[in-house]
TrEMBL record:
InterPro entries according to UniProt: Kinase-like_dom_sf (IPR011009), Prot_kinase_dom (IPR000719), Ser/Thr-specific_kinases (IPR052239), Ser/Thr_kinase_AS (IPR008271)
GO cellular component, one term: cytoplasm
Coiled coil: none
Species for this entry: Spumella elongata
Reactions it catalyzes: L-seryl-[protein] + ATP = O-phospho-L-seryl-[protein] + ADP + H(+); L-threonyl-[protein] + ATP = O-phospho-L-threonyl-[protein] + ADP + H(+)
Annotated ranges, domain Protein kinase: 60-281
Record keywords, A-Z: ATP-binding, Kinase, Nucleotide-binding, Serine/threonine-protein kinase, Transferase
UniProt entry tagged with the keyword Transferase: yes
Record-listed E.C. numbers: 2.7.11.1
Lineage: Eukaryota, Sar, Stramenopiles, Ochrophyta, Chrysophyceae
The protein's enzyme class: transferase
GO molecular function: ATP binding; protein serine/threonine kinase activity
Name of the protein: non-specific serine/threonine protein kinase
Keyword ATP-binding in record: yes
Amino acid sequence: QDLSPLSSDCCDLAIMDDAHDAHVFASITEWCQAWIQSLLSIFFQTGVTFEHSGLTVYFNPNNSSAGEGAYSTVYKATQAFTQEPVYALKRMLIQSDEIRQIANMEIDAFNKFRHPHIIKLLDHARATKSGKRVVYLLFPFMERGSLRDSPGTTVRNQRTLITVLSKFVHICEALNVLHKETPAYVHQDIKLENILVDNDGAPFLIDFGSVRKAELIIKNRKDSLRVAEDAASHCTASYRAPELYDPPQGSTLDTRTDVWSLGCLLFAWWFGHSPFECEFH
Protein backbone atom coordinates (compact mmCIF):
# COMPACT_ATOMS: atom_id res chain seq x y z
CA GLN A 1 0.00 0.00 0.00
CA ASP A 2 1.21 3.45 -0.92
CA LEU A 3 1.93 5.40 2.28
CA SER A 4 3.15 8.59 0.54
CA PRO A 5 -0.02 10.65 1.28
CA LEU A 6 0.27 9.78 4.97
CA SER A 7 3.93 10.65 4.97
CA SER A 8 3.15 13.97 3.29
CA ASP A 9 0.50 14.81 5.88
CA CYS A 10 2.91 14.00 8.70
CA CYS A 11 5.54 16.23 7.15
CA ASP A 12 3.03 19.07 6.85
CA LEU A 13 2.05 18.68 10.50
CA ALA A 14 5.68 18.64 11.53
CA ILE A 15 6.35 21.82 9.57
CA MET A 16 3.31 23.49 11.14
CA ASP A 17 4.46 22.45 14.61
CA ASP A 18 7.94 23.79 13.91
CA ALA A 19 6.51 27.08 12.64
CA HIS A 20 4.28 27.40 15.71
CA ASP A 21 7.18 26.63 18.04
CA ALA A 22 9.35 29.17 16.24
CA HIS A 23 6.63 31.81 16.56
CA VAL A 24 6.18 31.10 20.28
CA PHE A 25 9.95 31.18 20.80
CA ALA A 26 10.22 34.50 18.96
CA SER A 27 7.41 35.98 21.05
CA ILE A 28 9.00 34.82 24.29
CA THR A 29 12.39 36.13 23.17
CA GLU A 30 10.89 39.51 22.27
CA TRP A 31 9.11 39.72 25.62
CA CYS A 32 12.29 38.79 27.52
CA GLN A 33 14.31 41.40 25.64
CA ALA A 34 11.74 44.08 26.40
CA TRP A 35 11.64 43.02 30.06
CA ILE A 36 15.43 43.07 30.37
CA GLN A 37 15.60 46.43 28.64
CA SER A 38 13.01 47.81 31.03
CA LEU A 39 14.88 46.34 34.00
CA LEU A 40 18.16 47.85 32.84
CA SER A 41 16.47 51.21 32.37
CA ILE A 42 15.66 51.25 36.07
CA PHE A 43 19.35 51.00 36.91
CA PHE A 44 20.68 53.37 34.26
CA GLN A 45 17.91 55.97 34.23
CA THR A 46 16.82 58.51 36.80
CA GLY A 47 13.63 57.82 38.72
CA VAL A 48 11.23 60.47 39.99
CA THR A 49 8.47 59.69 42.47
CA PHE A 50 5.47 62.01 42.73
CA GLU A 51 4.00 62.22 46.21
CA HIS A 52 0.43 63.16 45.28
CA SER A 53 -0.16 60.36 42.75
CA GLY A 54 2.45 57.92 44.06
CA LEU A 55 3.62 57.48 40.47
CA THR A 56 7.28 56.75 39.73
CA VAL A 57 8.60 57.50 36.25
CA TYR A 58 12.02 57.05 34.68
CA PHE A 59 13.96 59.15 32.20
CA ASN A 60 17.48 59.27 30.83
CA PRO A 61 19.01 62.72 31.40
CA ASN A 62 21.73 61.93 28.86
CA ASN A 63 19.31 61.24 26.02
CA SER A 64 18.15 63.93 23.63
CA SER A 65 15.33 65.89 25.22
CA ALA A 66 11.79 66.34 23.92
CA GLY A 67 12.12 70.11 24.27
CA GLU A 68 14.05 72.89 25.95
CA GLY A 69 13.17 76.25 27.45
CA ALA A 70 15.10 79.09 29.05
CA TYR A 71 15.06 77.44 32.48
CA SER A 72 14.03 73.87 31.81
CA THR A 73 14.38 70.69 29.77
CA VAL A 74 11.57 68.31 28.82
CA TYR A 75 12.23 64.55 28.61
CA LYS A 76 10.25 61.53 27.54
CA ALA A 77 9.50 59.47 30.64
CA THR A 78 8.10 55.99 31.17
CA GLN A 79 6.82 53.88 34.02
CA ALA A 80 8.77 50.82 35.13
CA PHE A 81 8.60 47.76 32.82
CA THR A 82 7.16 49.74 29.91
CA GLN A 83 8.78 51.15 26.81
CA GLU A 84 6.08 53.61 25.86
CA PRO A 85 6.97 57.34 26.22
CA VAL A 86 3.67 58.07 27.89
CA TYR A 87 4.75 61.14 29.86
CA ALA A 88 6.49 64.43 29.25
CA LEU A 89 8.69 65.29 32.23
CA LYS A 90 9.72 68.93 32.59
CA ARG A 91 12.87 69.27 34.67
CA MET A 92 13.72 72.68 36.12
CA LEU A 93 17.10 73.18 37.78
CA ILE A 94 16.59 75.76 40.53
CA GLN A 95 19.73 77.85 40.30
CA SER A 96 18.29 81.08 41.70
CA ASP A 97 15.34 82.50 43.61
CA GLU A 98 14.00 83.86 40.30
CA ILE A 99 13.81 80.36 38.77
CA ARG A 100 12.25 79.01 41.99
CA GLN A 101 9.54 81.67 41.75
CA ILE A 102 8.97 80.87 38.06
CA ALA A 103 8.56 77.16 38.90
CA ASN A 104 6.12 77.91 41.72
CA MET A 105 4.12 80.32 39.53
CA GLU A 106 3.86 77.75 36.74
CA ILE A 107 2.61 75.07 39.12
CA ASP A 108 0.08 77.49 40.63
CA ALA A 109 -1.07 78.64 37.17
CA PHE A 110 -1.68 75.10 35.89
CA ASN A 111 -3.63 74.28 39.04
CA LYS A 112 -5.62 77.52 38.82
CA PHE A 113 -6.51 77.58 35.12
CA ARG A 114 -8.32 74.52 33.75
CA HIS A 115 -9.74 74.00 30.28
CA PRO A 116 -10.04 71.02 27.88
CA HIS A 117 -7.44 72.68 25.64
CA ILE A 118 -4.97 73.64 28.35
CA ILE A 119 -2.56 70.77 28.86
CA LYS A 120 -3.12 69.10 32.22
CA LEU A 121 -0.43 69.13 34.89
CA LEU A 122 -0.63 65.56 36.18
CA ASP A 123 1.66 66.06 39.16
CA HIS A 124 4.78 67.82 40.36
CA ALA A 125 7.69 67.00 42.63
CA ARG A 126 10.61 68.75 44.28
CA ALA A 127 13.93 67.03 44.90
CA THR A 128 17.59 67.64 45.64
CA LYS A 129 20.07 65.86 43.34
CA SER A 130 23.79 66.07 44.13
CA GLY A 131 23.17 69.15 46.22
CA LYS A 132 21.12 70.85 43.48
CA ARG A 133 17.44 71.69 43.83
CA VAL A 134 15.21 70.38 41.04
CA VAL A 135 11.50 70.77 40.29
CA TYR A 136 9.72 68.20 38.09
CA LEU A 137 6.42 68.75 36.28
CA LEU A 138 4.60 65.77 34.78
CA PHE A 139 2.39 66.11 31.69
CA PRO A 140 0.79 63.82 29.10
CA PHE A 141 3.19 63.09 26.24
CA MET A 142 2.05 64.07 22.74
CA GLU A 143 3.94 62.28 20.00
CA ARG A 144 3.12 64.83 17.30
CA GLY A 145 4.78 67.62 19.23
CA SER A 146 4.00 71.30 18.71
CA LEU A 147 2.49 73.21 15.82
CA ARG A 148 6.05 74.14 14.87
CA ASP A 149 7.28 70.57 14.42
CA SER A 150 4.07 68.64 13.67
CA PRO A 151 4.26 67.71 9.94
CA GLY A 152 1.53 69.21 7.81
CA THR A 153 -0.13 71.08 10.67
CA THR A 154 0.67 74.49 9.21
CA VAL A 155 0.81 73.53 5.52
CA ARG A 156 -2.01 75.32 3.73
CA ASN A 157 -2.49 72.78 0.94
CA GLN A 158 -3.23 70.11 3.56
CA ARG A 159 -5.61 72.23 5.62
CA THR A 160 -8.62 74.40 4.90
CA LEU A 161 -8.94 77.78 6.54
CA ILE A 162 -12.13 76.60 8.24
CA THR A 163 -10.21 73.73 9.84
CA VAL A 164 -7.50 76.06 11.10
CA LEU A 165 -10.04 78.54 12.46
CA SER A 166 -12.01 75.80 14.22
CA LYS A 167 -8.86 74.68 16.05
CA PHE A 168 -7.68 78.24 16.66
CA VAL A 169 -10.96 78.95 18.49
CA HIS A 170 -10.05 76.26 21.05
CA ILE A 171 -6.86 78.15 21.92
CA CYS A 172 -8.80 81.43 22.14
CA GLU A 173 -11.25 79.79 24.55
CA ALA A 174 -8.40 78.34 26.61
CA LEU A 175 -6.67 81.71 26.80
CA ASN A 176 -9.94 83.38 27.78
CA VAL A 177 -9.88 81.33 30.99
CA LEU A 178 -6.89 83.46 32.03
CA HIS A 179 -8.32 86.71 30.70
CA LYS A 180 -11.69 86.47 32.45
CA GLU A 181 -10.15 85.73 35.86
CA THR A 182 -10.41 88.50 38.47
CA PRO A 183 -7.85 89.99 38.31
CA ALA A 184 -7.09 89.02 34.70
CA TYR A 185 -3.92 87.18 33.73
CA VAL A 186 -1.89 86.98 30.52
CA HIS A 187 0.05 84.02 29.13
CA GLN A 188 2.73 86.27 27.57
CA ASP A 189 4.27 83.66 25.25
CA ILE A 190 1.68 82.56 22.69
CA LYS A 191 3.48 80.98 19.70
CA LEU A 192 3.57 77.85 17.52
CA GLU A 193 6.01 76.11 19.87
CA ASN A 194 3.63 76.51 22.82
CA ILE A 195 0.70 74.74 21.13
CA LEU A 196 0.92 70.96 21.31
CA VAL A 197 -1.10 68.70 19.01
CA ASP A 198 -2.49 65.28 19.96
CA ASN A 199 -2.98 62.34 17.59
CA ASP A 200 -6.43 63.61 16.64
CA GLY A 201 -5.08 67.06 15.76
CA ALA A 202 -6.58 68.80 18.80
CA PRO A 203 -4.44 71.75 20.03
CA PHE A 204 -3.35 72.33 23.63
CA LEU A 205 -1.92 75.46 25.22
CA ILE A 206 1.26 74.80 27.23
CA ASP A 207 4.10 76.55 29.08
CA PHE A 208 2.65 78.65 31.88
CA GLY A 209 6.03 79.77 33.17
CA SER A 210 5.46 83.31 31.87
CA VAL A 211 1.93 83.81 33.22
CA ARG A 212 1.43 87.06 35.17
CA LYS A 213 -1.33 89.50 36.11
CA ALA A 214 -2.47 91.35 33.00
CA GLU A 215 -2.82 94.92 34.20
CA LEU A 216 0.42 96.90 34.47
CA ILE A 217 0.39 100.64 35.04
CA ILE A 218 3.41 102.43 33.58
CA LYS A 219 3.93 105.39 35.92
CA ASN A 220 7.46 106.39 34.96
CA ARG A 221 10.49 105.53 32.85
CA LYS A 222 11.69 103.02 35.42
CA ASP A 223 8.43 101.06 35.08
CA SER A 224 8.75 101.20 31.29
CA LEU A 225 12.27 99.76 31.31
CA ARG A 226 11.34 97.07 33.82
CA VAL A 227 8.33 95.87 31.80
CA ALA A 228 10.29 95.93 28.52
CA GLU A 229 13.07 93.86 30.12
CA ASP A 230 10.58 91.36 31.53
CA ALA A 231 8.86 91.05 28.13
CA ALA A 232 12.20 90.45 26.44
CA SER A 233 12.78 87.52 28.83
CA HIS A 234 9.33 85.94 28.61
CA CYS A 235 7.73 86.90 25.29
CA THR A 236 9.10 85.80 21.91
CA ALA A 237 9.98 88.85 19.82
CA SER A 238 8.07 87.87 16.65
CA TYR A 239 4.84 87.47 18.67
CA ARG A 240 5.36 90.41 21.06
CA ALA A 241 2.91 93.32 21.13
CA PRO A 242 4.46 96.69 20.11
CA GLU A 243 3.66 98.33 23.44
CA LEU A 244 5.86 95.79 25.24
CA TYR A 245 9.01 96.99 23.48
CA ASP A 246 8.87 100.48 24.98
CA PRO A 247 5.75 100.95 27.13
CA PRO A 248 4.69 104.63 27.12
CA GLN A 249 4.64 106.42 30.46
CA GLY A 250 1.09 106.91 31.70
CA SER A 251 -0.22 103.87 29.81
CA THR A 252 -1.88 100.73 31.18
CA LEU A 253 -1.11 97.32 29.73
CA ASP A 254 -3.77 94.61 29.79
CA THR A 255 -4.91 91.37 28.10
CA ARG A 256 -4.67 92.98 24.65
CA THR A 257 -0.96 92.12 24.59
CA ASP A 258 -2.06 88.46 24.39
CA VAL A 259 -4.59 89.32 21.67
CA TRP A 260 -1.77 90.68 19.51
CA SER A 261 0.11 87.40 20.01
CA LEU A 262 -3.03 85.46 19.06
CA GLY A 263 -3.17 87.34 15.76
CA CYS A 264 0.46 86.40 15.08
CA LEU A 265 -0.35 82.80 16.03
CA LEU A 266 -3.26 82.59 13.58
CA PHE A 267 -1.05 83.93 10.79
CA ALA A 268 1.66 81.41 11.70
CA TRP A 269 -0.86 78.56 11.91
CA TRP A 270 -1.83 79.23 8.30
CA PHE A 271 1.48 80.29 6.76
CA GLY A 272 3.95 78.41 9.00
CA HIS A 273 5.62 81.49 10.49
CA SER A 274 4.76 84.72 12.32
CA PRO A 275 4.30 87.82 10.12
CA PHE A 276 7.32 89.25 11.94
CA GLU A 277 9.64 86.29 11.39
CA CYS A 278 12.13 86.61 8.55
CA GLU A 279 15.19 84.82 7.22
CA PHE A 280 18.35 86.32 5.85
CA HIS A 281 20.15 84.49 3.06
